[in-house]
């Protein structure tokens, strides 16, 4: 009797061990797949600007250097390519830290109105190149104090306003508004009247490296990580991010924050 019981227990333990191992292997396989996909995406993103920079440098070495005007123009373009590489590497660093949970939120009290104004100051030049007007509608003129990670929320606002400029129409408008919600929350909205996004893309927009325009050839191209970073930061605060968009009409991205009374 007791031998049978022991055998049954042993069999169960062996089965459980095998099941655990199988799960472990599955998890490792998924991680490996994820790592491979990530590395594939990274090298793909780096390739375009690297080849651009190489192209200009080779042309200069091939003789274009002798012409003073061309030399300056090509060096400026090569520098732009390097600048783009730096942006991509910075975004990669940020998304890796956010995804591995290697980043702590540094929470403090700050004025979100001031953050929006800072972002406008930073991006005004960029907007003016497309003659896009940045407007700020705040129901209250005074400060709106929130409790969050100042630097990261500034990055969220920067990425969203930057996108509204990149995908905005010439002579368009980007409007930021801040509004009270119930339960001590505020909602920050970034609205543009740009190209808008087709419904079929919306659910995937926050994925790393997802782009509506796959060609990557567009001059506006970023790292494809902007919205993934935004989502991580907002959800890391236990807050919500929303998107509403109509193709050909415009888009509105919004997120909530905890308000200080
Ligand atoms: P990137 O701008 O570097 O391509 P993002 O993650 O910031 O990467 O955005 C992903 C994609 O979402 C963009 O390539 C673009 O197709 C689309 N998108 C983002 N913001 C807007 C916007 N305001 N209007 C239209 N399309 C947008």
Automatic annotation (TrEMBL):
<keyword id="KW-0472">Membrane</keyword>
<keyword id="KW-0812">Transmembrane</keyword>
<keyword id="KW-0597">Phosphoprotein</keyword>
<keyword id="KW-1133">Transmembrane helix</keyword>
<protein>
    <recommendedName>
        <fullName>histidine kinase</fullName>
        <ecNumber>2.7.13.3</ecNumber>
    </recommendedName>
</protein>
<feature type="domain" description="Histidine kinase">
    <location>
        <begin position="41"/>
        <end position="261"/>
    </location>
</feature>
<keyword id="KW-0808">Transferase</keyword>
<dbReference type="GO" id="GO:0016301">
    <property type="term" value="F:kinase activity"/>
</dbReference>
<keyword id="KW-0418">Kinase</keyword>
<keyword id="KW-0902">Two-component regulatory system</keyword>
């Amino acid at each position: 009797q007791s031998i049978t019981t022991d055998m049954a227990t042993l069999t169960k333990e062996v089965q459980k061990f095998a099941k655990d191992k199988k799960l472990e292997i599955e998890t490792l396989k998924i991680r490996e797949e994820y790592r491979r996909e990530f590395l594939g995406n990274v090298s793909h993103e780096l390739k375009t600007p690297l080849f651009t920079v190489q192209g200009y440098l080779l042309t200069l070495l091939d003789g274009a250097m002798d012409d003073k005007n061309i030399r300056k123009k090509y060096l400026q373009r090569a520098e732009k390519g390097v600048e783009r590489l730096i942006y991509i590497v910075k975004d990669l660093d940020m998304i890796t830290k956010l995804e591995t949970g290697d980043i702590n939120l540094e929470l403090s009290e700050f004025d979100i109105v001031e953050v929006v104004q800072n972002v406008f100051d930073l991006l005004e030049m960029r907007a003016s190149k497309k003659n896009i007007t940045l407007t700020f509608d705040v129901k209250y003129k005074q400060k709106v104090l929130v409790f969050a990670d100042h630097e990261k929320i500034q990055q969220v606002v920067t990425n969203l306003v930057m996108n509204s400029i990149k995908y905005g129409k010439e002579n368009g408008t980007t409007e930021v508004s801040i509004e009270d919600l119930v339960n001590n929350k505020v909602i920050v909205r970034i609205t543009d009247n740009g190209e808008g996004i087709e419904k079929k893309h919306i659910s995937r927009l926050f994925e790393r490296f997802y782009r509506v325009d796959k060609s990557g050839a567009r001059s506006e191209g970023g790292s494809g990580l902007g919205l993934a970073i935004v989502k991580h930061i907002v959800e890391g605060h236990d807050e919500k991010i929303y998107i509403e968009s109509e193709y050909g009409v415009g888009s509105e991205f919004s997120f909530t924050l905890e308000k200080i009374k």
